[in-house]
Amino acid sequence: MKKTCAALIAAILVPACLYAQNTKKTAASIKEESLSQESVQDAVIFLKNSLDSAATPADKRSILYFTGTMQEQLGLYSDACKSYTKAAGIAAADAAGMPKVSSEQLVINAVRTSLCSGDWETADSYLNSAVRSSKNKTILAYVNLYSVWSSLCKATSVQETRDSVSLLKAYSAMDSMKDVRPAVLLTLWYITSDAEYSAELRAEYPSSPEAAITEGNAQIMSVPFWYFVPRNTAAQTVPATDKKSEIKTQSSSADASATTAESPKAKKQQLGFYKEEENANASIQRLKEKGFDAYSVPEKRKSGTTYYAVVVDENAEGTMGQKLKNAGFECYPVFE
């Protein structure tokens, strides 16, 4: 009788075990399914829900990396940073059929996304890890660049950016920094408003995204780092067609208008973007419980789907973003 019962139990459990094994998926198949979702937001949700079904550690690592890239597209920089960090912590190779990425590159991605959200403390902690001793020249170039970006995050005035500007100028002439030179020149142009750097970009990297930004053919994403870093708007901004061209000084009236020009001010702080209105309402409720007057703004896409952006109006002092972060909420400014 006991043998019969044991046989019956085995007959039940073995198929269940086989079924559990069959539910495991490769990273490539999960990625393919995610790309069939209706929106990037839906793809991210699908990827996160599919993480536990990854067949191997390599598949899980690749899914986390791909999730991070999607979150970064959506401006979910803190979430992207976490995905990259988790992926970097998995000791496994790249999964078959997935983009190749080293652990050092994952750490660099985590640094970049933390800086994009203005979180220089997290960025510094990763910059001071093993990547600082990397033997890869490109990784070291990014470590140097992002270390300067971290310093710029901490700056509260143009005067406090001077050391960073001096370091960037030195980097722009170093052969070891050639892999990130377009980003170095763009940063110098953005902070100093000096047309010399935009001229160099157009002359040496005419097809680069950085050159397109200086020409007004592309825009910098709505990233806290770029909006809050102090800028010297009084510097000359005369366009130049050749990096060897003489930069002409502006008239005193032009200097005066540049000096008084104000940086764009945020109208709202956005905290989430939801497909389901009930999820947006739940987020609003949490914010209201913390004393924030949050509300949702519906946005209808061409597909007919309506999404809901959860926002809080900026205050007169321009400190709402910091107040939200102090209360534990991730947000980014909306300029209208």
Automatic annotation (TrEMBL):
Residues 251-261 have a biased composition (Low complexity). Residues 270-332 form the SPOR domain. Residues 1-20 form the signal peptide. GO terms for molecular function: peptidoglycan binding. InterPro entries: SPOR-like_dom (IPR007730), SPOR-like_sf (IPR036680). Pfam families: SPOR. Residues 239-272 are annotated as: Disordered. Keywords: Signal. This is SPOR domain-containing protein. It comes from Treponema peruense.
